Amino acid sequence: MGSYVLRRFISVILVIFVVATATFFLMHAIPGGPFKREKALPPAIQRNIEERYKLNDPLWKQYVDYIGNLLRGDLGPSYKYLGRSVNDIIREGFPISAHLGLVSVVFALLVGVPCGIISALKQNQWQDNFIMAFAIIGVSVPSFVMATLLMYVFAVKLQWLPAAMWGTPKHVILPMLALAGFPTAFFARLMRSSTLDVLSQDYIRTARSKGLSWGAVVYKHVIKNAILPVVTYLGPLIAGIITGSFVVENIFAIPGLGRYYVTSIYNRDYTTIMGVTIFYSALLVMLNFLVDIAYCWIDPRIKLTDAKE
Amino acid sequence: MRIRKSLLWFACFMTVLLIASTGFAAEKLAKKQILSFNVGTEPSTLDPAKSTGIPEAIIELNCFEGLTRMDENNVPQPAIAESWTISKDGLVYTFKLRKTKWSNGQPVTAHDFEWAWKRALAPETASEYAYQLWYIKNGRPYNEGKLKDPSKVGVRAVNDYTLQVVLENPTPYFLQLCNFPTLMPVYRKVVEADPEGWFQNPKNYIGNGPYKMVSWQHNSKIELVPNPHYWNRKKVGMERLDLYLVDDIQTALSMFETGQLDWFDAPPAAEIERLEKQGLLHKSEYIGTYYYMFNVTKKPLNDVRVRKALTMAIDRQTLIDRVVRGGQLPALAYVPYGLGDATPDKDFRKIGGDYFKEDLAAAKKLLAEAGYPDGKGFPTLTILYNTSENHKKIAEAIQEMWKKNLGIDVRLTNQEWQVYLDSRTQLNYEVARAGWIGDYLDPMTFLDMWVTGGGNNDTGWGSKKYDELIYAAQAELNTAKRAKMLHDAETILMTEMPIMPIYFYVNLTVIKPWIKGAFRSPLGFIDFSTAYVLEH
Fold first, then answer.
1. Separation of alpha carbons A179 and A98, rounded Å
2. Which residue of A has its CA nearest to B416?
3. Rounded CA gap, A114 and A218, in Å?
């Protein structure tokens, strides 16, 4: 186990390094730059700016400087939001996105998983049909439609909740629902199919025949075995959702991190592109790693060793 | 009969009462003088020397005050400068400053202006709008790093309350520029302590304008309250301004409808008609032109007859009514309305008039003369635009008009903003969409960009005569002669037609009826110092 963790850790560092390098050269390959404007700047002013932000250094030097700073944990200054470092941007935006994301994941789990189980237990009955109809809507309606619809109904028409902004618990509800729509439906479907799969296993019949009640079988054997695919999906889902969604944050005017994934590229804000990409990939590989460890805990048959050991 | 008479009296009485009550209500102020406005986007910076956008300028111009301030009629009025004298050759301005204070109570002096302007010009400040100070003697060489000695730059504090400015050329709009963010004074101590990020902390955001910042929640909201040390404090009646930083216009509209916002700009095109019916939509002058550029280095666009035919063969009014919406004005010339001529009260556009007509027969004739009768043999043209729903709709409409009217096949290409800018500068296009918003209220801000090789002249076009007129106008002291030169320059531009004007912008804004007193300049800036809220 110890050596496995070490190997995984080294591979995590490698992955982040490769991501950083690829992103760096790709973003410099696309046309434009952080200080290119519709109103073209006089060449002298363009030079002043490039000098000031060291954009006229050769690319390899910019790369070496960047990686050097990165190793010290310094993601550099934003080129778009002057006077702010990318570290600041992540420090301010991430807690908000993470708050919203975690609430949404918990909602999705609390609603999606039980719905999936009920669906499987009542297969092809009205409960199943009802839940699966909703699940199809949840999977297929994109979040921007959901967000706009929720805002229109609950904020503009009924005036129950604020239309946008962030700050009080009331502000969380609509974006949470918009964000949780897809994972909730996805969890329900995933849980349904894996529960059906587990229900047909021999050990369930054994458990039943040794006299365990239905409730005990479902609780002790079915859920524990059926939840594995959900756990697998949880890793990338959490990484994706807590780093923020561009669409939902934009529509509800939430000052999270999500918008930067898109706007930093439009703005050619090189340091921010790098910073948020590295942050996201680090989080993603880390969570996948945690999921692997969680497997081991949920299902003792899975061992975290390399094949040779 | 008697009943009728009394009814009549009663009706009269009620009418009087009604008029009196509405009249009375219209005067009554709301208890809470708070206004919320959507600035539209997170400011890139709030350092007046370095900012470039209109959202930033709106905040800065309410937190700082320059030598002058523009009034409702867009005429520069004394502000921090109490009075000034201008030398006969139009080159030396001597400003006499009022005794005013920064928002921390310290005095604002002429030295603050001298320091702030030289800082904006210093190459290491890397200010994008530094060219707004190139009008000052030696401003340009100093900014370009060719001149090292800042004392040679033409701005000098003669004493604490006298500022002398020497210009390169007589610049009739220099007093206007004194109200531009780049020329705002800044508080030296806080700027020197943290030149990059001094404005990030509201405590350090020391200004001399009507308002001061109390909080800045990134991507969310900026709060301004009156600056107690502002010299004209009694003019400011608001308690607080909530400036929201909401990007999405649909969201801004929802916030407006739920009462979270009192005022926002650029409503979604689909809602314009409804908002106008409800009386919430306001249109104001905005000096900008939407046009298509022709790449004159490519066949068949190197032929002026082809360019003219294309320009004459579209129906601008239909395009505005059906596609753009919002009451823009058809552009049959390049310089928009709202800019002064020889005297500021005359409109440059009205005097210059239209330069061409939408005339199908003439367009077809020109195209035939160029060797393409009924569009036969005309190669497929490509219109390039940056990815946006509005630009796409306009391009589609023009595509259809050219096809129908001239028999020309047109392809559309869209590119992401920065890629599009790159294609433009590389002249890697045939026809490209563009827009231009003026930097100051003078036709020069529209015309000087078309000089040969100008940074914004992405058409490959150039004319020696045109360049001479522009350079001569820049040095001309006589306003009538200068205006004539600018008209002549526009005539050349509209005769050779490297660009096809489409429409003049208008500013569309949505305001709650009880918000009064604030006004917007045609440059897009808003002065909130005189705003007030009626009871509602």
1. 12
2. A266
3. 11
CATH code for the part of the protein at B31-256: 3.40.190.10
Place of tokens 């003669």: B158
What is the nearest CA distance from A187 to chain B, expressed in angstroms? 30
- Say how far apart CA B345 and CA B187 lie, in whole Å: 36
For residue B373, is the peptide bond before it cis, meaning its omega torsion is within 30 degrees of 0?
A: no
pLDDT tens across the length of chain B (536 residues): 444 555 555 554 554 444 444 444 456 899 999 999 999 999 999 999 999 899 999 999 999 999 999 998 889 999 999 999 999 999 999 999 999 999 999 999 999 999 999 999 999 999 999 999 999 999 999 999 999 999 999 999 999 999 999 999 999 999 999 999 999 999 999 999 999 999 999 999 999 999 999 999 999 999 999 999 999 999 999 999 999 999 999 999 999 999 999 999 999 988 999 999 999 999 998 999 999 999 999 999 999 999 999 999 999 999 999 999 888 999 999 999 999 999 888 999 999 999 999 999 999 999 999 999 999 999 999 999 999 989 999 999 999 999 999 999 999 999 999 999 999 999 999 999 999 999 999 999 999 999 998 888 999 999 999 999 999 999 999 999 999 999 999 999 999 999 999 999 999 999 999 999 999 999 999 999 999 999 98
- Express each pLDDT in B276-307 by its tens digit: 999 999 999 899 999 999 999 999 999 999 99
Sign (positive/negative) of CA torsion B301, B303, B304, B309?
negative
pLDDT in tens, B89-138: 999 999 999 999 999 999 999 999 999 999 999 999 999 999 999 999 99
Top residue of B213, B219, B250, B425 to mutate, by most chain A CBs within 10 Å, is B219
**Class of CATH domain A94-298:** mainly alpha
Please list every residue in chain B whose beta carbon sits closer than 8 Å to the beta carbon of residue A252.
251
| Chain B interface mutation, best of A50, A81, A158, A248, highest count of B Cβ atoms under 10 Å | A81
Backbone φ and ψ of A82, nearest 5°: -65, 145
Q: Which two tokens stand for residue B120?
A: 């904006």
Q: Do B220 and A255 touch (CB under 8 A)?
A: yes
Measured in angstroms, the CA of B59 and the nearest CA of chain A are apart by 15
Token pair 């990318």 in the structure block, residue:
A86
B196 vs A30: CB contact, 8 Å cut-off? Answer: no
Q: Which residue shows structure tokens 């308002």?
A: B211
> Domain boundaries in chain A?
94-298
Classify B502 in phi/psi space as left (phi over 0), alpha (psi -120 to 50) or beta: alpha
Query: pTM, whole model, 2 decimals?
Result: 0.89
In chain B, whose CA is at the least distance from the CA of A30?
B419
Q: What is the 3-state secondary structure (H, E, C) of B411-467?
A: EEEEECHHHHHHHHHCCCCCEEEEEEECCCCCCHHHHHHHCCCCCCCCCCCCCHHHH
- Chain centroid to CA A170: how far? 23
Residue from A45, A91, A149 whose CB has the most chain B CBs within 10 Å, to mutate = A45
Q: In the CATH hierarchy, which top-level class contains the domain B284-507?
A: alpha beta
Map out the domains of chain B as residue ranges.
31-256, 284-507
Is residue B427 within 8 A of residue B270, CB to CB? The reply is: no
Same fold, B31-256 and B284-507: no
Q: Which of residues 249-278 of A touch B (CB under 8 A)?
A: 250-253, 255, 259, 266, 268
Is the Cβ of A93 closer than 8 Å to some Cβ of chain B?
yes
Q: Kindly determine whether residue B221 and residue A165, on different chains, have CB atoms separated by under 8 Å.
A: yes
